[in-house]
Amino acid sequence: MADKTDQVMELAKRRGFLWPSFEVYGGAAGFYDYGPLGATMKKRFEDLWRHVFVKTEHTPMAEIFCPRVTPEPVLVASGHVGEFTDLLVTCLACKAPTRADHLVTAAGYKGNAGALKAPDIDAQLAALKPKCPSCAKAAGFTPAVKQNLMNATEIGPGSGRVGYLRPETAQGIFTDFPLLFRHFRERLPFGVVQLGGSNRNEISPRQGMLRLREFSMMEAEVFYDPGKKTHPRFSEVASRTATFVPNADEKDHHLTFGQAVASGMVANEALAYWLARTQEFLLAAGMDPKRLHFRQHLKDEMAHYAADCWDAEFHSDRYGWVECVGIADRGSYDLTQHAKHSGKDGKLNPEFTRVIAATPGIAFTATVPVPAKPFFPTLKQDARAAEAAMWEGSAYAQEAARRGLDTAKWAERNERYLITEKEVRREPATAPLTVQANGKDIIVPASAYEIATLDVTVQGKRILPCVIEPSFGVDRILYALWEHGLETGEKNGEAYTRLKLSPKVAPIQVAILPLTNKDGLPAKAEEIEWTLRAAGFLTDNDDSGSIGRRYARQDEVGTPFCVTVDNDTLKDQAVTVRNRDTGAQDRIAVRGLAEHFRAVFG
Amino acid sequence: MADKTDQVMELAKRRGFLWPSFEVYGGAAGFYDYGPLGATMKKRFEDLWRHVFVKTEHTPMAEIFCPRVTPEPVLVASGHVGEFTDLLVTCLACKAPTRADHLVTAAGYKGNAGALKAPDIDAQLAALKPKCPSCAKAAGFTPAVKQNLMNATEIGPGSGRVGYLRPETAQGIFTDFPLLFRHFRERLPFGVVQLGGSNRNEISPRQGMLRLREFSMMEAEVFYDPGKKTHPRFSEVASRTATFVPNADEKDHHLTFGQAVASGMVANEALAYWLARTQEFLLAAGMDPKRLHFRQHLKDEMAHYAADCWDAEFHSDRYGWVECVGIADRGSYDLTQHAKHSGKDGKLNPEFTRVIAATPGIAFTATVPVPAKPFFPTLKQDARAAEAAMWEGSAYAQEAARRGLDTAKWAERNERYLITEKEVRREPATAPLTVQANGKDIIVPASAYEIATLDVTVQGKRILPCVIEPSFGVDRILYALWEHGLETGEKNGEAYTRLKLSPKVAPIQVAILPLTNKDGLPAKAEEIEWTLRAAGFLTDNDDSGSIGRRYARQDEVGTPFCVTVDNDTLKDQAVTVRNRDTGAQDRIAVRGLAEHFRAVFG
């Protein structure tokens, strides 16, 4: 019997979500085309991601766009030329190449086969004697060899200059770091995202959409002062709960993000914040919360430079838990590598140096009591001295002193420390303040001063920023949304298929269905459709078959709402709006329809 | 002195529109990164294109998304493996490769050098004796050889299976045609678009953004019944004017699109319609109408299978007229090629055959008199015969008869001809109708019948659709928008730079500027910014430097509106909105600001 994956793929192909690429030429393993519904869903999905990770993110964020073809030196520096490999073995009978770690796992090896070295793989193969997945003979395999997984090409015909199709979008962000840092006025933190295609020349792709030779990614690289891996809005996400699977015990822990940081399970607040935003996005896109967890990389999985790394995994009926997002604290590894490799004989490329070695600001927020207008009259001749004393005793001054800053020499600060400040807010004081000045205690009444909060930036520290990277695999998540959304069953003796896509990513938002093909209903339906399209909605217009069959057709592709235009519409200027999930039918005035859907879709 | 191109590129680099890729590694000719402002502008530009070519286009349209890597057989069929070539010559002194047609053109050859064959190029080089662009010596060149311009790669490591990075996005649409045809319920016309990257491994890219090794395209393939290259909305664009440069005289003709079709200058109405939509899009994106024209391909430029082909060209101070869109009537060439090549020994692949050889519908619109409700009572016993006679004499029946259809056998039509009909509108009749029935003239009064307009589709004709292809080069058009938008000058003794980007593509729609850094203005500015961001606007928030300097900074990146938050804002809850182009300043209530900008941006 067809399992859920088969059902999903059959539906996806039949209705135009996903087609195997180049099928009329016999196809090519590991490549898929997104058809009309799939491409539209993919675009809405990517725009939703931009909404969460760029437009409504309080960290300053920007998007950039870099080429697919990348010269070899960049990928030498990133480690991909040396390390982006799988172990390959070849069947001694049929000569078919196979990925060695998958082979030993399928043959029953219980550990993390991806971490095995070539001699260990050879030993496992000798012990397990697996059959070749291509010819089904157990004729043995060649010794495992490292196979690089990048697609090579030539830059400039006949030039001999090697380039690769990028294996991830992140490297474009790292090589542009000096320019990006300047773009963000040399202040940390900031984040840069890139959405786009990448390639991985898989040895033998076999798992449908999970293992592609060309795929889409959405990556964010968020740069932090290594000493300040915090987020000002963490409190907004701290009480949300998730399932964490830490590497310490590999068991489920249902915790809030706040607890996960406080207990030390997640390395720092900034990392936990991005886990929470990842969860928020995946749920908004329609992933089933019960089939989503965060799994910490095992110790032998984690890169040596990573401070911490978690995968968001979704559960699939056929494939089990599948990684779809990696959220890693990569330290300063990437920037260090590029600084080293882009230089010659150990010297950094000047332009790169200028920024890496520049003086990124460190910002702190200080609270300062400042005189309100009636301050001077009240305190008379003590006013000036009291004011100076207030500055000296303020949280700002204490923070400055801790950093070796001389607050007394206020006027000189810009020259000496490149201090800049920005007032965030100003509030009335609630209690009198006692300061020592002119050799006595001076009581400054609450009415005579206010509390100002300043963002203060002090230049002068040399740091190499570190990066937290949430990296999303688009195709896998789209597959998850289809598998989690698919509902099949029987109702009143009739089989039905419903794809419960989130209204935020459904490729058709509203279908307009004229009840019959006469009495001017098709024309009315078309008029309504164009009103909705002009208002920016994605619509479909279906006039063939019974209304029940048309509802079923829309349910199958996840259309959240159907609008039925009937003979009463011509009289009462209203339509019936049917909700996919509840089946509820509401009569809505045509005049207010766009407004109604704007409110519904948010 | 720096020309406009230099000014554009300096500004683009400094402000984060465009950066040479991989610069820290010495760069790579023909590759650019879009920085934060450039990537955002590119995305808005592509979304605007979708709005014009998909969302508000009355032809049924869909978007698909296919991989970059394409197996060789697809590109053999399309002709790219054999014909996607330039002639290459190598300098005898320095061994640098150069594109031969560019070399002879630069040396003074006046014809279309791109059409010269290798021996003609060799003869021209012998006569013109140009210097090598790399070493500047006139040491002569090797004979010209054809150089394929595709980037090759391997599909599956060690497989020996050749793939190429696609040189255009169109082929994905053509290979999916059978699936797409079914998706559109086997009715013509329909259009399919694809946006994405393509590669062209240029021999020696030298013209900045005009000649890239990796570039973005937006392509539409609109499939027509070869006998019906019309557009139902042509009348809406027919009276718009444009400058046409036909190949007959290569001179400017200022005509309406209607005149261009009527005079036979543009081959057919559908092609002219897509020229008009192209113009509409380019002007909305901000191209200068005075620096845009449509040039017909010269006879030796046009592909042998093309029925007609026009380029939209923009004028550049440095480069002259530059092609940025090609709009071609490609006949049925592409589908024919894929049908031929995807088959084995001349037989078509079954799945492909099924659709290519299937029975695309031909639709016509017929006007039919139909009885209104009071029809029967009035005519009594003649009613039924009169009704039948009305059908027989209708425009519908005449049209059907012309196609050999038997309208009398109404009940059988679906089985015999697969006729389907859809009522478009119904109007009252304005005059009585005389029909012959029951052996006499029967007068049917106007009050007794109505005129219904039906879209009738008759299946049964075997055709191979032809295609009209508007194909847009994203990078070149973005460059044009920057060059056309750049305005430099002096005002009150101060130099200024203004980038007059269309509000529809500007990367920052609204900048929020707190007048000072105190009195709570930055907090108020932030609050306003977040309201606008939540409403979907792209914003910037700049608080450093004088207000004049900040206006200048926003003018330079094309921000259409600046919102200044001043001390009065805290009292009157209003802000000053400054218009980039007019300098006009309006006081607008904060509460209505999002609504105000929604109306302005449309």
How would you summarize the topology of this molecule?
The structure is a homodimer of 602-residue chains.
Chain A: H1 4-15, E1 18-20, E2 32-34, H2 36-55, E3 61-63, E4 69-71, H3 72-77, H4 80-83, E5 85-90, E6 97-99, H5 100-106, H6 118-128, E7 145-148, E8 152-154, E9 162-165, H7 170-175, H8 177-183, E10 190-199, E11 214-224, H9 234-237, E12 241-245, E13 253-256, H10 257-262, H11 269-285, E14 292-296, E15 308-316, E16 320-329, H12 333-342, H13 350-356, E17 362-371, H14 375-379, H15 383-393, H16 395-402, H17 413-417, E18 419-428, E19 433-437, E20 440-444, E21 449-458, E22 466-473, H18 474-485, E23 486-491, E24 494-499, E25 510-514, H19 521-534, E26 539-541, H20 547-556, E27 561-565, H21 567-572, E28 574-579, E29 585-589, H22 593-601
Parallel strand pairs in A: 3-10, 12-14, 25-26, 25-27
Antiparallel strand pairs in A: 1-2, 4-9, 5-6, 5-7, 8-9, 10-11, 11-22, 12-13, 14-15, 15-16, 16-22, 17-21, 18-21, 19-20, 23-24, 27-28, 28-29
Helix pairs in contact in A: 2-11, 5-6, 8-13
